[in-house]
Inverse folding.
């Protein structure tokens, strides 16, 4: 029996919806299903504006354009993240790239260390991009307080955090802008997909324009202007309505999906608790309610992690490591700044491993993972 790391799934009428979209005669972006998805999210998250995008990468790029980043501007972010967090800043600074400034993460949550932010602020700093790793919230109260004090914008890369909360507030709705992913490896999926959440009124109108190739087409469709034209820079960031048709039932079943994932997450946590002397388990702060995006463990060193991944692979179970820290990647060295040592990031980059976790994992799947894990640790 083999267990993949991730498996795409449908939960309801995704496929019928795609047919309906075609029958309705609208499969371009911003058809009826797109509208339903963004309204659903606005209601569910109790936020002002949600626009679907074709990826979280697109949402992050839109955020970089909205912030009007200029060349020389600096954006503080973790290096332990996906390339898109940093790429958006490098790529989308108006008049050339702005500069990601990497700082270390916290040992416990693997999220940006809020206590290092102020030290990295210079007169060029314009924003803080935070990443809610594994769907567990960054320390947002402190981060928002620092941002207000220094007049910085906050963008939440909530790619992994759809349906997670910080002190009762949905992640993605706390900073000025939030970005979600519906990539097939995330909790809620549409193959590729994403959304941008605009929490600061001043960005709403321009977000619609940037997303529609720099035109005021959204206003035109609403009848607010009598012709549409090129008014600003922009690109095509909207998904096809077929994607939204697939996404809608996924969103509507968000609680069911996340609940099932959390059951699996808890089974892993109980299993690994037996091996606390050998590995480190995830830490969830009391004020966080997480969506079980990921179950990971950390070994003491790279060799031990490699041994485990190879052992599991031989047992047919796909376990994967995660980010190679961006500050040590070739493009990270070329385009970004790393003012301080990054001991935690370096260590986590070498030692963290993720276990298979997907919505329709069967009890048999879990049993074979459990057997392999027990055999591995008992053989040490
Ligand atoms: C998955 C992910 C992204 C990219 O999402 P896409 O929808 O694939 O563009 C960005 N940031 C983080 C932290 C992610 O996990």
């Amino acid at each position: 029996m083999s267990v993949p790391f991730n498996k795409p799934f449908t939960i309801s009428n995704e496929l019928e919806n795609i047919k309906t979209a075609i029958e309705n005669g609208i499969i371009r972006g911003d058809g009826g299903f797109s509208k339903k998805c963004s309204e659903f999210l606005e209601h569910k998250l109790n936020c002002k504006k949600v626009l679907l995008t074709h990826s979280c990468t697109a949402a992050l790029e839109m955020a970089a354009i909205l912030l009007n980043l200029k060349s020389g501007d600096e954006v503080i972010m973790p290096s332990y993240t996906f390339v898109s967090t940093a790429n958006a800043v490098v790529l989308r600074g108006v008049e050339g790239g702005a500069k990601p400034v990497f700082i270390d993460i916290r040992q416990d949550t693997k999220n940006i260390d809020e206590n290092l932010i102020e030290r990295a602020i210079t007169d060029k700093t314009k924003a803080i991009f935070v990443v809610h790793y594994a769907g567990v919230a960054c320390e947002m109260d402190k981060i928002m307080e620092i941002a207000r004090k220094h007049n910085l914008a906050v963008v939440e890369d909530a790619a992994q955090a759809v349906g997670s909360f910080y002190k009762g507030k949905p992640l993605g709705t706390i900073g000025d802008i939030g970005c979600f992913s519906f990539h097939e490896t995330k909790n809620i999926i549409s193959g590729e997909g994403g959304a941008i959440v605009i929490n600061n009124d001043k960005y709403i109108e321009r977000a619609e324009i940037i997303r529609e190739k720099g035109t005021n087409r959204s206003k035109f469709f609403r009848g607010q202007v009598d012709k549409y034209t090129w008014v600003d820079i922009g690109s095509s960031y909207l998904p096809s309505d077929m994607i939204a048709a697939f996404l809608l039932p996924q969103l509507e079943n968000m609680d069911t999906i996340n609940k099932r994932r959390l059951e699996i997450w808890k089974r892993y946590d109980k299993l690994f608790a037996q091996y606390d002397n050998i590995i480190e388990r995830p830490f969830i702060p009391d004020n966080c309610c997480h969506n079980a995006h990921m179950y990971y463990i950390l070994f003491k060193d790279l060799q031990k992690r490699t041994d485990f991944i190879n052992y599991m692979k031989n047992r047919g179970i796909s376990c994967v490591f995660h980010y190679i820290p961006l500050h040590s990647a070739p493009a990270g060295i070329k385009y970004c700044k790393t003012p301080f040592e990054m001991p935690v990031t370096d260590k986590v980059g070498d030692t963290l491993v993720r276990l298979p976790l997907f919505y329709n994992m069967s009890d048999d799947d879990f049993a074979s993972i459990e057997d392999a894990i027990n055999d591995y640790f008992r053989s040490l």
Residues 55-57, 81-82, 84-85, 131, 157, 159-160, 181, 183, 194 surround pyridoxal-5'-phosphate (CB under 6 Å). Residues 241 and 364 are 36 Å apart (CA to CA). The radius of gyration is 21 Å. The chain has a mean pLDDT of 96.
